[in-house]
Amino acid sequence: MTLSALQMIALGLLVLAIGLSTLRLLLGPTAADRVVAADTLAVITTAGLAGLASVFDNPIYLDIALVYGTLAFAGTVAIARALEGDRE
Questions:
Q1: Under the phi-then-psi rule, with left for phi > 0, alpha for psi from -120 to 50, and beta for the rest, what region is 57?
Q2: What percent of the chain has pLDDT over 70?
Q3: Contact at 8 Å (CB) between 35 and 76?
């Protein structure tokens, strides 16, 4: 299995995005910054799973990406509500 030039560029951009989001997750000055960074990492993971579906030509990864994205969204909403509840 060899990757095309476009797939290599996409992989490089995913790695860069993971690095920048992880940096924000670790250095974020507020809890809201960390939640947004964690949500961004979840979106990047979903995109990576969709990329795997393309590389391996296997649609099961799309189903996994759909479930993962839905659960990550629900988790982000729950964390955001918990943080908002602390302000009242």
A1: left
A2: 97
A3: yes
